[in-house]
Amino acid sequence: MKQNLILFLLCILSCAARTQTLRVIDNTTREPLYGALVYSRQPQLNGSTNQKGEVNISPFQAADSIYISFIGYTTVVFTYKQLESAGFVVELTESISSIGGITIIASRWKEKKVENPYKIETLDMKEVAFQNPQTAADLLGTSGYVYIQKSQLAGGSPMIRGFATNRVILVVDGVRMNNAIFRAGNVQNVISLDASGLDGAEILFGPGAIMYGSDAIGGVMSFKTLEPVFSDTDTTLFKGSGLVRYSGANYEKTGHMDLRIGLRKLAFATAFTYSDYDDLRAGSHGNSYFLRPVYQDTINGTDTVITNPEPSLQVHSGYSQTNFMQKIAFMTDSGFSAEYGFHYSVTSNAPRYDRLTLDANNDSVPDNAVWYYGPQKWMMNRLRIIVIKERRMFSQLRLVAAMQNYQESRHDRKFGSSSQRNQTETVDAWSLNLDLDKKLSDRLSLFYGMEGVYNKVGSVANRVHIATGEVTPTTTRYPNGSTWQSYGVYGTVKYRLAERWILNSGLRYSHTLIEADFDTTFFPFPFTHAQNSNGALNGGIGFVFNPDQSWQLYLNGSTGFRAPNIDDIGKVFESEPGSVVVPNPGLKPEYAYNFEIGTVKAFGNFLRLDLALYYTYLDNALARRNFTYNGQDSILYDGNMSQVQAIQNIAKAYVYGLQAGLELALGKGLMLKSVISYQYGEEQSDDSLVYYPKSHLAPLFGNTHLTYQRRMLKLDLYADYNAGMDYEDLALSERNDDAPYARDANGRPFVPGWYTLNFKMGLYVSRYLSLNAGIENISDRLYRPYASGISAPGRNFIISMKGSF
Fold first, then answer.
1. What is the tens place of the pLDDT at every residue in 50-66?
2. What is the arithmetic mean of pLDDT over 327-347?
3. I want to staple 592 with a disulfide (CB 3.0 to 4.6 A). Which of 217, 493, 609, 692 is the partner?
4. With contact defined as beta carbons under 8 Å apart, do 410 and 373 qualify?
């Protein structure tokens, strides 16, 4: 018995001697680094870390030097004995010398960023977690290159290079979120995504029509939600995290949890987040126009104006939100994998704050007693199939089928009115994407595929008497039962002209079709049926030159387009007090022509520069302009005589600008990072040659961070800033719809410039526990971002705790 025990122990020791595990972690956060490369040259060996940041290092015992590298980190070299002395734990430190990284947004497949002739910003999810954004819109804003407009707290409309709303695309797990009723006005759908439930996010700047079709004029924002992870051993892999966060400016209470379970061929991922936000408190030092001196309430059935005892408190702005996600993935040893994902997001009723503060008569009596969005719901069922195998037609194949359902509603009542209007819209969106790539040679790769999208719009409306409850039908926002379809085929090539030169080029043909039947019961349309059918051919060509591994130069020219949708051709709504938009079914696509040149250069491990210059020309642009209806330029709508307007192909516009970034290592853990965006553009006011400033053109903006980073600790002192805009800098539409803006000495709207000072701290107690705290807007500035209808948070204390395993 004793001898058997001794033999058993010797066996264990022998196995331990043969198998030694190396763990690679981040120096600051202590998180394991998945995919870190471990290799030696003598002998030639290589390996990579698993989901736990671990790799078997035993085969490297005879190696003279063992290299450990990870994208974005400084490569380190050890001997086996040195690793043994360190307890087989290696801590990697972030580096600014790398200009590489992996992207999927440009071709839908994983590629090296340095081989793409476009500006692509990959958001560092570790930095995102440190900044603690409340919503996915705020997450985009942390990049410093995307401007976020908000009409209410439950919102966030991204602006990229002077374009926004239905001229930029949102993509989640390879599926477009833009639907048939995305409007030219600010669109808040991005908040449906869970900022705490993402594995990654990328931004492609400039037209992305070849891969993403209609709407990709200003750029593409692609989000990757939490992925299931497979175990690389026979042991079941468990991975998860939990987060709680509190913010003082709107008394945010957020709780998040996610769990991933992985076997060798089957894996699961679950995520749940709940957030509750009270009314948002603005700053106290700034333009008093942005305060809330009075608010409205209905007391004993009577609409009443109430003096706000705390004018910086933006009464009627709070809301709550719930997000849930479930994924199941399966793979085989033959290169086949399948993944099903279910996503669900819902908000509470969300007050439309900018409409609640309207006061057309300037008599301290709000125009509206009630104006809120009903629950914004988004649901997606998605199936993805990937085949990785060398075939005659492809090296990799990916099929993504998705069904999305959107629901939103608007509820408004004029101050003193006895009737509330309720409009509800739904969109059922089906999509199918087939993407393939084929490596034809060491120098030539082909990417091609096809896409089909079908949207069906539901739109109902009624009026309810608030005293009697009597319900009467009224005009719907869109033609009920209308459909929007889009079909496209594309092909792109990547060709290595020489060792340092790469050519990217591609074409896409898209065709869209709209069918709509109009109900003339409440609105005497001059037609009962409308059909809109259009085709669009788009292309692009780009060159990349890499003088060395630390330098990228790129040049590209591309086109983009936006086909009219249901919102363009069939909407009836009050665009602003005294104006009504009517349908115009004869619209054509608008086209964008873009030129860009840029560079990324790293100087050793102490300086990194990033610069992009661009010019975009928009032809046959869809714009809202004065119109006639049955020969009349004004009609009675909702009890008011209103100027008739419609979306029309009569405008031209251009935008040019630059985006620049700098990272400077100051030594001893200190880092300076700064980004800035400048854009200028004009658009036609009518069919004449007179140009005025373009709408959705954010003023110069950016941020500068001074960070200190050491083992288990990160500190960040930073400033966000925004230039002002005079009255002459505003688009004509913004001068007329001027509610979001302050007033100058002549009573004209303008945008005051602003800046905020902020401080964040992260304490990474262990790989299992981290604490974050911060103070935003330390000086309690009172300001509003450009075009926003709600003031930004004042001094805001944030604290969060995250546990991981």
1. 988 999 999 999 999 99
2. 97
3. 217
4. yes
The secondary structure of residue 467, as a DSSP letter, is T
728-753 burial, b if ≥16 CB within 10 A, otherwise e? ebbbebbbebbbbbbeeeeeebbbbe
Q: How far apart are CA 449 and CA 465, in angstroms?
A: 53
Q: Rounded to an integer, what distance in angstroms lies between the CA atom of residue 152 and that of residue 353?
A: 5
Going by C-alpha positions, the residue among 342, 333, 373 that lies closest to residue 175 is 342
Residue 134 near residue 277 (C-beta atoms within 8 A)? yes
Return d(Cα 567, Cα 168) in angstroms, integer. 15
Task: Output the six-digit token pair for 643.
Answer: 């100027």
Q: What does the pLDDT average to over 498-504?
A: 95
Buried b (16+ CB within 10 A) or exposed e, 4-40: eeeeeeeeeeeeeeeebebbbbbbbbbbbbeebbbbb
Residue 181 burial by Cβ neighbours in a 10 Å radius (0-12, 13-18, 19+): buried
Instruction: Give me the amino acid identity at 606.
Output: F
Percent of all residues in the chain with a pLDDT value above 70, rounded to a whole number:
97
Nearest to 753 by CA among 287, 100, 282: 287
Using the predicted structure, report yes or no on whether residue 12 has a pLDDT greater than 70: no
HSE-up of residue 264 (Cα within 13 Å, Cβ side)? 5
pLDDT score for 799? 98
**9: pLDDT strictly greater than 50:** no
Residues 446/493, Cβ–Cβ less than 8 Å: yes
Quote the tokens at residue 340.
């099903």
Separation between Cα atoms, residue 568 and residue 633, nearest integer Å: 19
pLDDT at 13: 40
Neighbours of 436 (CB within 10 A): 21
Q: How many other C-beta atoms can be found within 10 angstroms of the C-beta atom of residue 163?
A: 30
> Which residues lie closer than 8 Å to 190 by C-beta, 6 or more apart?
135, 136, 137, 140, 156, 157, 158, 170, 177, 221
For Cα atoms 736, 741, 742, give the angle at the middle one, nearest 5 degrees.
120
